[in-house]
Design goal:
single chain; about 280 residues; alpha/beta; Rossmann fold; seven-stranded mixed sheet; 6 helices; 11 strands
């Protein structure tokens, strides 16, 4: 088989001594100087090829993961600005907590790209992670200063608890679904959240052995306010819950002022129904 003749640019000529390597180009040097190769071949030990390829793959995957992380960080910042601050969330500590806690870590991998969308998302067991705005609103309505002991009814995936943990001294959270309880524990431990204490049980009955609580937050729709929960509230405490029908509720804050219970309302909402002794009866 005849070898095809190679045409070289004017500034390159082949080295006669390298005629057996026609793919190498050589640059013309000063008059009278010998010809020098522009590119020298690099010899690679074949035993290192698989290792080199593996390292290349690791660098490639790492670059993808880094880019994905940056995209999620940007999405979280946009969520804070466009979904929270633009809608009236003003507490800087709440905005900072929402900016810091990685919501995507509490979701199944196939939904992480939607972690900072403006709406709830499924987490399994017919449960959802709440809309970011609702998580922030509940945290703001709680008026936490950092010294409170908080009881959360309905751990779910653990996201609300993680946000509250950045705003309060301690968070006690009860979840009735064992799988969600176990998964939330793993995620919170992985993220290093050390001031959240979890229990698997009937959240509608609270957590009497750790009462009283400065704030009680319910993240499931309730048909009314259970007496046992109010009895676990500190005298100057605040009780926050979505109360109403199974399809539509109102976010309510209940507190005692001058010896009387007072209610404040913060708009309509829709949560998954609470089950248990004091929940909805199907």
């Amino acid at each position: 088989m005849s070898r095809q003749r190679i045409s070289y640019p004017a500034e390159y000529i082949p080295d006669p001594e390298a005629a057996h390597q026609p793919w190498l180009l050589h640059r013309r040097c000063m008059a009278g100087a010998r010809w020098r190769p522009l590119f020298r071949p690099r010899f690679v030990d074949p035993s290192n090829l698989s290792l080199a390829a593996g390292r290349s793959r690791v660098r490639f995957v790492s670059s993808i993961v880094s880019a994905m992380g940056t995209d999620l960080d940007d999405a979280r910042e946009r969520m804070v600005v466009e979904q929270l601050a633009a809608r009236g969330i003003k507490d800087p500590r709440v905005l900072d907590a929402m900016r810091t806690v990685p919501r995507h870590r509490f979701l199944p991998s196939e939904l992480q790209d939607h972690a900072y969308d403006d709406g709830p998302l499924p987490i399994g067991e017919a449960q959802t992670i709440s809309q970011p705005y609702m998580v922030a609103l509940i945290a703001e309505v709680a008026e936490l200063t950092g010294a409170e002991r908080v009881l959360e009814i309905g751990t779910g995936c653990g996201y609300q608890a993680a946000v509250l943990a950045r705003l309060a001294r301690e968070v006690y959270s009860v979840e009735c679904i064992a799988h969600l309880h176990d998964r939330a524990r793993i995620i919170l431990n992985t993220l290093g959240v050390g001031n959240v204490y979890l229990k698997c049980g009937d959240g509608s009955e609270g957590w009497a052995e750790n009462a009283p609580f400065d704030v009680i937050v319910v993240t499931a729709a309730m048909p009314g306010v259970p007496g046992p929960l109010l009895s676990q509230l500190a005298p100057s405490g605040r009780f926050i819950a979505p109360i109403g029908e199974d399809e539509l509720q109102t976010l309510v804050r209940i507190s005692r002022k001058s010896g009387q219970w007072q209610e404040e309302y913060f708009g309509e909402c829709r949560f998954v129904k609470m089950t248990g002794k004091y929940g909805f009866k199907d």
